[in-house]
TrEMBL record:
Protein name per the record: C2H2-type domain-containing protein
InterPro entries: HMGXB3 (IPR039598), Znf_C2H2_sf (IPR036236), Znf_C2H2_type (IPR013087)
Zinc-finger listed as a keyword: yes
Keyword annotations from UniProtKB, A to Z: Metal-binding, Zinc, Zinc-finger
SMART domains linked: ZnF_C2H2
Domain C2H2-type: 129-152
Annotated source species: Phoxinus phoxinus
Coiled-coil regions listed: none
GO molecular function, one term: zinc ion binding
Amino acid sequence: MTERVFVFADEEELFSVMKDLDCLYCRNPVAASKHHIKKRHLRFAIYYKDSGIGKFSIPCYCADGGHGRSHWHCPMCTKILQRTKDYKIHVTNHGVEMTDKSTVELQPTSVLLETLQTDTDDRTTGDKSSCQKCGVHFTTTSNLRRHQRLQHCQVHVMPVLCVDAKNAIYVTPKDPHGPRVPVHIRKSFSLQILLCELEECWDFMKAQAQRGNPGRECRHLIRTSHARPYTPPPPLCVRSLEDMARRRLLSGTRTQQCQEIHSRAGLDGVDCVYPVLWGEHELSERCVYFSVYTGFKDKWCQFGRTHVSFDSRSGGWKCLCEFRRSLCVHKCLSMWWLFQERPELLGNALDMSADGVEELEEEEEDGDKLCPEEGDDIC
Ligand SMILES: [Zn+2]
Ligand SMILES: [Zn+2]
Ligand SMILES: [Zn+2]
Ligand SMILES: [Zn+2]
Ligand SMILES: [Zn+2]
Ligand SMILES: [Zn+2]
């Protein structure tokens, strides 16, 4: 069975979850048409604010409730509640704030009969009800207005990119000002994961839980409601790595290590190097950031990924790993990606002559030319 989600940020998300499937929230098989979803579920949705972000939950009629009776699954714990009133109280205790815009109160007895009825009142109005910014359609203008208020007021403030859909890992800028240094976060209601790699955020959420607000999100996690869906980056090609080795930009050992980590990431079904391109997906900014697969977890790579940054002006590289001052394999992997996709940004590093390699090999021991001393780097 497909993993079910019980909280949504907008209606389109709900429709797309069950595109071409039977409804996951009904006991009897029924096509999850938009019409069905609207009539049986959305109409009774409960709206609330979760750390300031608008969300909603829909009633469920699956076998868990017994005899197809309507019930509610809590998205934050595993509890199932039969009565709408109890569900509202329950999620309020999790720290969300009811905004309750629902016009129709759920009447458990009447909805059972509705499966037999055919539907004729599927009103779709014209362009009036589609969002100018993202093109999503809405049934009513009030839904559209709510969407615009919630999705587009904050959307350009802080981007959130999904770098690993399988493990629900995202990156978002750590701070709203200055260089957009990324942090990794993980969030999945179905996997019951709510994590930020920053210690201060971990402390914040722990304190909130102790105060009776489990599931309260840090300033990074709350942004995931407008996360951009995962898009695969240009994949690394072994041929370009071989080219780098041939041009003696990488030593034999490093080339081999890169290849090993790259294929291990492939086996795990994740991207080895995910370039973090903020803004319009362009490398217009001075600093280029990468989320790089490590293959294990540690204090500096809690989710199995480290951060590498490259200052295209100074040519300086940084990595969060314990070899931060030398040319670690994560920097090499990121360099591989840049060499392949944006060689112009590597600049001088590419002009090295063949006899530069001895120098490079030595420097691997104790710091590197490709990795100058920290100082003028801004990343
Ligand atoms: Zn249904
Ligand atoms: Zn259910
Ligand atoms: Zn709960
Ligand atoms: Zn929109
Ligand atoms: Zn955080
Ligand atoms: Zn590293």
